[in-house]
Amino acid sequence: MSWRDLLQVEGETVTAPWVGGSYLRTFDRQWRIDDCPREHGWWRFGVSGRVAVVVGPAEASPDALRGTVSGYLVADRLVGDHVVVSDPVALLSAFPRVHLVERGVGRFERVVVGRFCEDGPLVYVSPDMPLGAEMDVLQAFEDRVETVAHVPDVAPALDAAFRVETWRREEVERRRREERERREREELRRRVAERRGDAVGRRQLAAEDFGEAAQAALAVGDAVYLDHRPSGGSADEMVVTFRLGARRFQCTCHRTSLGIIDAGLCLEDHDTGVRGDSWLTLESLPSTIRQAEREGKLVVLRHVL
User: For the whole model, what pTM was predicted?
Assistant: First the structure.
């Protein structure tokens, strides 16, 4: 039999809440815990000298807590009575955490909490009697009313709890929206990656995101997409600005087919008078510009600074 076994059988025992830390403290004494409990909760400790040893789990003993106070729980934070209402974010960070809260405590229900040692963590004791306005405030919260100014006899702590609960709900909804939008962006990028690699995919993409489609099409000819805007003509016409080498160019193309309407260059056959713009697409226009530069025949009609 070890000294720990003797301590557990014959020594003094203390039933206390444990919520972390390597010391067991009361209002009068302190012991170092030898092997901390496996989880937060109420435990029975065998104590001797300056050492406490875990004997086993124990039933909650609220009578062991002192300095009890009342208020409302927001998540696991206590909105104590006589709180001064201010910014909900600042309030939430200032509210002390309550440990070992029993399951089933509802929103805007009053509770009693206490401490096992001076300046120790707050521990749940029991429910407390309502003051009267709690059900009306809960209904206002469920109805998404912005304020409880219309509810009579709302205590400052209850008003603060309502404000913080409303802010918390808005934050959760905001994060959900942002997460949904993030997933939608990722899905769009995935579809873009799949579609931008072939001509048919780029034209399908143009119906959803013309800018991405134009960027992918120009990249085929090693041109860099810069911007686009609707033209002053048909609703199916887009003016696209891009860079090729050190120069900027601008053309007009069909929104859906990416076919060139006006290349911004002189592509007229002087023998036949036929313009060659419509023979090109955003993919083929950059190579046409390079060929004209090599042959010394590039005539830019639409200059871009």
Answer: 0.60
